[in-house]
Amino acid sequence: MREGAQAEQLQALSDQARVELAQVPARFEDAFIDLLGGGPGGTSTLAERLPPVELGSDIAVSCRNLTKRFGEFTATDNVSFEVQKGEIFGLLGPNGAGKSTTFKMLCGLLKPTAGEAHVVGHDLRRATGAAKSRLGYMAQKFSLYGLLSVQQNLEFSAGVYGLEGNTRRERIAEMIETFDLGDWLSATPDSLPLGHKQRLALACSLMHRPPVLFLDEPTSGVDPITRREFWTHINGLARKGVTIMVTTHFMDEAEYCDRVAMLSRAQLIALDTPDALKRSAVSPERPDPTMEDAFIHLVESADRELEAAT
């Protein structure tokens, strides 16, 4: 925790069972946010409204030997992992490593060439519809309908997930308030500032209160305050038992995850906690590696092993 953090944020963090507080140097981003009046507090109003998630199993998402080929090109190659209920699970990798392809298969948007995947106990090969009803998906692009207004996008999302009557009205009002969309209801998504556009996309993906949430680079291109706001909600949802899978290019965001899977050249090359991944990159020249150091080390090591084997 950086110096000067507000007391209520420290208290909110100290109440989290899995968090240990340690003072760290302030970053340029911290100073930027402070100059703008400070970011969000440590509590998610969205998560506060949610009841705890109940699942029949401790495993929310699993895949085994998941493979996707497009002709001769292999986008995902024999990827296997399990994600625990309430876990924030990150997927990292270079561009073209297979992150989004893996996401789309786990969301039922792409049919695997081989392997199997389960979401909340539903086999995506046989019960795609049942699985989709239990998950939320925020795509990196094209997750909103540009010809519809903000209000209509919210109404459409509520209808797709079968919300009706008072429940429908209450959920839409809840999302408008939580994500500060009230002044933009008649606007189209394309006219929104990027931060509000991403807020709308997240609101639509959470409308039906899914126990599993897939976020494909949710903070790409947004300002630091909005990015911090998103992670406040993500952490709050996880504490209520929502399982969250997220892809990101921001190495500091990867450190917010409970575990991180790294993909390179369509294959899973590492899976562990952020601290363990950083320890794997320790060397005499690099005694205290960052997450970025670990990422580069693991990708380059995997590339060398692949080249040596061919």
TrEMBL record:
- Pfam families recorded for this chain? ABC_tran
Q: Which residues form a coiled coil?
A: none
UniProt-recorded Gene Ontology molecular function terms: ATP binding; ATP hydrolysis activity
Q: Which domain of life is it from?
A: Bacteria
**Would the keyword Nucleotide-binding turn up in this protein's UniProt record?**
yes
Provide the protein name. ABC transporter domain-containing protein
PROSITE patterns attached here? ABC_TRANSPORTER_2
Species of origin reads: Stutzerimonas chloritidismutans AW-1
Recorded hits in InterPro entries, A to Z, give: AAA+_ATPase (IPR003593), ABC_transporter-like_ATP-bd (IPR003439), P-loop_NTPase (IPR027417)
Keywords (A to Z) from UniProt: ATP-binding, Nucleotide-binding
Give every ABC transporter domain span.
61-290
